[in-house]
## 1
Amino acid sequence: MPALQLSAPLVLPTVLLACVMVTQTACTPEQATTNRGEVTEGAVKGPEAVVAPRSARASDKPADVQRAWYFPATASEYAKMVEPELGVPPRIDLSEAVEIPVYLDGVQVYGNRRRACDNPSFLGKDTVSGSTLQRHEGRTADGTQLPDVVWVSFARNSTRDPANLIGSVQMIGYHRKTGATAFFESCDQIKPWVTLDEGTLRMRGVMPWIDDPAGFDRAFVPPQASRPQCVQCHQADPFITNDFINAAKMPGTNENVVPILDEGSPFYVIGGENWDMRTVHIPDNRCLECHRVGLSTMSMFMENGWDPNAHMPPKDPGSLAADAAQLLKVLRDGPASVEGAHWVVPPAKGRPAESVGDDYPHKARFNSPKPASKRKDK
């Protein structure tokens, strides 16, 4: 069935990487340290700094359960914070990445296709050629390989007018055994570092790395308290996949660039220990046999025109419509509306998955039912 953040080679609508649901505005080095909320009084500045949400709306938490998020103020400080578990972020050279092809009737096409293509993103944005993906091996600062760590970088082209480049470059680091995850995202104004090939709009350029902390902080930001939790979209696991993302293959193979995880994959966010990590479990629901399902993510893509029963399961679309209906009922009415349905948080740090109830302390609004009158995903 239609799971959004996926775990099996399924056919889904999405796009990859940190906090994908909103477009970030241009930022300056000064904004990179001030736009993510206020440092809690008495907290230490640096990798251990505690960033407090500015408001319930910004943090996507009801006012009575707001809690600090443990992200430092800058990307370079966050890189130091995640290094013990994930090593160092990759150097990103877009010319070494894999271009994500956009197809129309099986033929690769270029330019802004909106939804007029075989593999649209269904993100609420146009589908534009020239985006790239790259998988990077985990490494320590001295170059030692970390075989259990993978990083994925995603350069997303959102340009409508080639004369005015708009896009972003994002990174996710993931530890396959512990579930440790880190999210980095650039500003939209990436023109100092990124250019577009004429005609195809393929993205090119080299992003600043951690050996240039000032440049790295100008180019990237860690998760910000002034924006939604990254797990509002990246609910089921760190990587979102779909026809658009899965069109990018490892060179010389038919293997997707973005790793495919499953329902048992561990997952937690370094610094986001207070984020809402819940997904729903329903006994005997066949949609959940291969992967977890992020209901908020599912809703987002349905609002943008994706029909789960037209895509899932991939070899027999629509055959699990009854199972999909259970998930949609939970999405709209909450777990109590379906017999046996309950919230679970994924395994992490060697701990198994855990069922949680109403006393779960990290509830966020994106996991709360909405009245039918306010839903757009009918």
## 2
Amino acid sequence: MQRRFANLILAGTLIATPSFAGTIYTREDAVRIALEKSSDIKTAEQNMKSAESKVSGAYGNAYPSIDFSATYARTFGVSDVRKSTAISDMLHDVDDQNADINDKILGSVLDNYAYALSAMGNGYRWGTQVGLTATQILYAQGKVATGVEIAKAYKRVNELALDQTKSDVRYNIETAFDQVLYLDSAVAIYEASIAQATDHLEYVKQAHEAGLVGELDMVRAQLQVDELTSGLEKTKKNQVIAKNALLNTMGLPWEEGVDFTGTLRSPDDGSVRFPDTSMNGIRQRRKELAQLRESSSMYKKNVDIEEGDYRPTVVLGGSITYQNGQNRVFKWDAPDWDDNINKKVYLNISMNLFNGLQTREKVVQAKSDLRKNQIQQETAERGIQLELESAVNTWNDAQKQMDIQKRKVDLAQRTLELTQVSYEAGKSPQLDLLDANMSLRNAKLDYMSALVDWNKAYDALLKATGEY
């Protein structure tokens, strides 16, 4: 039995023998390339960069804000503002000898006063304003610090999403790779069966010419070769599709003649262990649950932010502004610290007293979002428990099928050996020999299919427990 089963394993290991017609990828190569080129991972990485930017932006709210503004305007419908007024004109008309010093002083004061009123009332046709303003939030109901915490939680959610995406890509690669190996093995088994059937056909032709067998026996042998050839062609087409699908999952274009080399895990491999199926461990390992926990933290903090609108905001600010007005477009006065530059420092306290109950409704919505997230967590845990139970049952069934398929191969091999001896002794018809060959081929294919199913079940079990 051990020798016959060894022959099966030898046939199965043909999956690790590439044709060297093109590029050859190992399982490790496929996973590495997929992690580098997968569009899903690239999208998750971009989401990660966006999350990191949100953290930096949230910290920015704690720093002072400095703004620069410049305005140059033309005002229509105003008269020129002149330094000389009716009062100064009147003083010029008065003989200086008749005006004493008090008259001159009073005239000068009234002249400047009239000029100021004219500038304020009529304004200048051309005006310039350049300002620099700085503000610092001193208290904002905890929104700044809470906003930073939300941004960090959002970043953590995206980190977990990136890890989950990488895990999904590895799982998809492993599954697709196993399918390619199965089809490679199926092609090898078909080719070996065709070679055997062709040899048998030649033997039957020679026996027919010698009159030892009838024409019907030769037709049956030919039909077996035709059937195997048709099955090989179909399997090769599926093989091409499977390789193309694997390359697509790797993020690579289709390449003709590409090969994949590797082996399938076997239940007899001592390194295969049963994963931890305890829910406590699964809760810690499953990325989906960790994402929901971080999202719950975000929603809780969002409630705090919305409730913060019930409290005041305190802002410290200061500004330096240069203002100047002129009658002509090209005239410009240099900034003077005491004349046309305004300096200001202020402390602003603002608090909303009534906004149509908008704050209250925002708090209600934030609490509703939090509750929906909690419901998602509960639903996800139940779904994971169901997924785990299904994965364990599927793996156990696959384990049983492996044992059955091993025995079927041994039985088919032994049946073929006995039928061959009986046929050569003339005790069994050719049909029995053809059936025995077909049964062995089908048993080998069924075994390889069961091995692939076992690997898929084991991968699904690792994925369900969060150990993938």
## 3
Amino acid sequence: MLLIVLLILALVLVGGGFVVHWLFIAAAIVALIWVISFFAGGIGRRGGAL
């Protein structure tokens, strides 16, 4: 019984780490796109979405 619980816990932790890793990569890509768009046309423009 303990081995099954440990197996499930290990699978949850591996899956969670995989999801967090891909979320970090997605956040880095979004931040890079934001920086590129900021320097490409965002400087000097008044107003905006935020």
## 4
Amino acid sequence: MRWVEVAGYIASSLVFLTFYMRRMVPLRLVALCSNVAFLTYAFALHLAPIAILHGALIPVNVVRLIGAWREGTDDRRSGDPRPDVAGPSRYLPRRSEVT
């Protein structure tokens, strides 16, 4: 197995891992690691669409990570930035957030 294949499997595993994460800060950190791994993979194999996608996702993840740190959204109990929200409805916006 070549190193580039290992990079691809690591990148794919990191994306898979993000779907199991509940807290925003760790999710963004793992997503950033995934972006870097996919960029390595894409540049090694000259895969422009993958390089463009993950190159564009890095700033998005950085901005969201900084926002999560600033807002203190790393709620350890529910994974929700709004600590007063519990249950499945925590994934829906508040009525006041919908315009």
